[in-house]
Amino acid sequence: MAEMIGTKMVSDNRTARQIFEEVMANPARRKFGFGEKLAIVNVDVQQAYTRTDLFKTAYETDPKQIEYINTISALARNKQMPVVWSRVAYADNAEDAGVWGTRTDTPDSLQNIKYDSDRHAFDPRCKVAEGDLTYTKRMPSAFFETPLASYLTFHRVDTVVVTGGSTSGCVRATAVDALSHGYRTIVPIETCADKHESYHFANLTDLQLKYADVEPVQTVIDWLEAR
Q: Does the predicted TM-score (pTM) go above 0.85?
């Protein structure tokens, strides 16, 4: 048998949060950094996923999530940098949900978020401004079959800041696609949310190690204020 020169999968008693904290504390952590112009891409900050007082599908991680999203969105807007808001919804027959809409079929299921419904609506706490790009998507990534890529190209953006939910789902998919499109990608920790801290921190860890700079939201605020 050949001698192993790689690494077997690690199995220990650390939680996902502990692993994340260790990765973030590493002084040798390499970063993509900011470029010259960013866009804030707020993913699915809609009532189906944010209104824990209304819907079983909603979740909260940081209670100030939307406040932070509004803060960095306003700063970007004031610096003439694009702000984007996506959300999900489907036709009455849900056929545009594709295979993704076939796993379950309950009133709370993904494909039963209908256009112009309460679940489709942006959370009223979101300060969506005139001139922001808003659109409805059907798949996890905010890039997939949407105007986002061409919009960012038109605005000569080189850095994408991804916020919203869920960390393990649409935020992750959007961040991976942002990198794949050639953008420096930033995920501000406090602006993302998920149903369980294990999913949340495990995916933040993986994003930091491979696809994005995972940073405190203050890092984005400081960069924008210094422009």
A: yes
